[in-house]
Amino acid sequence: MGIYRELAGHPGVVRVLISQLTARFPFGMLSIILLLHMQLSYGDYTSAGIVLATQSIGQAISGPLSSRLMGRWGMRPVLATTSLLCAGLLVAIATVHLPLLVVAGIALCVGLCTPPVTPAVRTLYPKLVPSNQLSALFSLDAAAQEIIWVLGPVVAVFVSSQFGTTAGLCVAAGFMLFGGAWFILSPAVGQVVLPPSRRGFGAVLRYPTVVISTIIGFFFVASFAAIEAGIVAAFSGGDAHGSSMESGVVLALFAGGSLVGGLLFGHREMRPWSILLRIGIVLAGTLACLVSLNIWWLSIVLFIGGLGTAPTFAAISNVVSSTVKFSETAEAYGWVGTGQLVGVATGSALAGIAIDIADAQGAIFVSGMLLVVCALCAAVSLRWIPDLKGRSVEPPPETGTLALPLN
């Protein structure tokens, strides 16, 4: 654990880590809140799925595009503009009852205005710590990220059940504005200049590791969104104002397992098979949920499954950082982040339909199948995943080797 104390000693690391976590926290809340808000507004989960799907389309477009714009216009202008627009649109959805198609259009704009905090911060990390500590920082970031994806829904369910889904959406907008401002005003954000990419938009997808990381991240996070919706449905009986205590306890223990796994194992040197192994741990815990919906059983198996969650995210970041040039890392993380954000919306949408058809166990089954596909993707990608044993995790040089003729 001493490595984490060393990381905290570097100027700017703690502030950047906490502020970006706060700025990204709403995206762990939004899928569940929108699911509940749309279900209350229109009477079914399928309508919620439509809204979440349009949001995911917007995110798919905005992720790599806004990340690339940071290299042209700078991090601060892009982050500030998107944060203000996105928060305003969320408040509009919360406070005005509109026809479903209009809400779906606004949700599309929410996706388009998603602040590119994730690619921004992961582009900053190699400039904040030495290369031999970068893997540990990615691990710490991955453990913190689990607060977003797993603990976020706990906050979402609690606020929505106690104060209503309108308040829940406004709280998410507040997190976005406060956290975004805190991160944007960090000295590190102003000091690091992101050079514009020398290649055309989308050229970063020629890196097999970027494509692999994006696909794995999509299925991995989609499985979480699905099981979170299933856990909420299992203890609320389909009523957004039902008991949130049981689902909150289960999801909190899921988050606890991920935090423990991230801190204990996430910083270990990565081998090509590490991602597959870590996904397998999560898959085992998810499939075990189908045995029983008893709160104690779910708490135990999801805590065990959570041990592989943060280490998987850390491995994905290591893969990208060690294979993509610095000038292209923002766009690369933009594609990876898009995969994860779209995964959240897609998993929630599929879970909503599954809950309508087969109740909570339907959503848990969807989560398990998404993880099976994720594991298969990791298995067939072993030949392209780098072996980082004994290597520092840092971007390759911008220039290639020039061969000179011998005289």
From TrEMBL:
Keyword Oxidoreductase tagged: no
Pfam families listed in its UniProt record: MFS_1
Keywords: Membrane, Transmembrane, Transmembrane helix
Superkingdom as given in the UniProt entry: Bacteria
InterPro entries membership: MFS (IPR011701), MFS_trans_sf (IPR036259)
Keyword rRNA-binding: no
Chain segments annotated as transmembrane: 21-40, 77-96, 102-125, 166-189, 210-235, 247-266, 275-293, 299-320, 332-355, 361-382
Record-given protein name: MFS transporter
Record organism: Leucobacter allii
